[in-house]
Amino acid sequence: MADAGARALRFVAARCAGDPLDPSLRITLNFHPDRTLPALVADGVYVSQFVTGTSNGGLTAYPGGDRWRWERRMFGGAYDDAPPHARPVYGALNFRRDPYGAAPRFGSAHLRLNAAALHRATFCYPDSYLEPTDFGVAARMPLIALARAAAVADPLDDYVEAHVHGPVRLDRDIEAVVLDPSYMDSEIPPGLPVEWHPGFRLPVEELVRHADYRGRRHVDLGVALAVDGVLTPKLIGDAAGRHDPQDLKRVWHLLARFGRR
Fold this sequence. Notes:
Layout: H1 3-13, E1 27-31, H2 33-43, E2 45-46, H3 49-52, H4 66-74, E3 89-93, E4 109-113, E5 121-125, E6 134-137, H5 143-149, E7 160-164, E8 168-169, E9 174-179, E10 194-196, E11 202-203, H6 204-207, H7 211-214, H8 216-225, E12 230-231, H9 233-238, H10 245-258
Parallel strand pairs: 9-10
Antiparallel strand pairs: 1-3, 1-4, 2-8, 3-7, 4-9, 5-6, 5-7, 11-12
């Protein structure tokens, strides 16, 4: 691990207390496979939005931006002078052992990292954009109790954020790539340890009941993308390039919130 990551871990560890993390838990990195999986296979490394310039959340990963400022606060300035590739990647701790991954808000697929990744990760609750004051590391983890006790209005917000310091490599750090069944007929790069979760499927008759969640315009877009009256993750992925990414993100939120099998 680079010096910046080691400094960040020490900084966070000094600010938290609690019992050690259950070593059987896993960090998951949720993502949309259409744009992320080809790059992951080609490069062998999962990288942060400081490198890609894309995100399933906010787009503020640049010097002086909100994401840069949040990391400066969380990690004591450890990454202020670090190059983009040295920055941590974001996921969540799957303390609920959810087959869809710990934070489906950020994508229908996820990487399940191995146990070793726990020891080079830091954690916060709630999400870092809320500038939390509660942190954890594998040796001192107070956050699961906080998350279980919280009254979260939206299930998509129910996660303990994780930051993995040091490169996340396909050949070393990943137990499995877990995909939605709507991609089962797609070409999957050979050599990947692939698993399948139960799937997201949202009939349009259910979709139209939730215009108050992300707005009527995004419900209408979801209806337009559906095939045979059903919306799936792959249909949203196939629409990339034809619709505004932020609109597709909100359609995905509808599917992730109301389309679990």
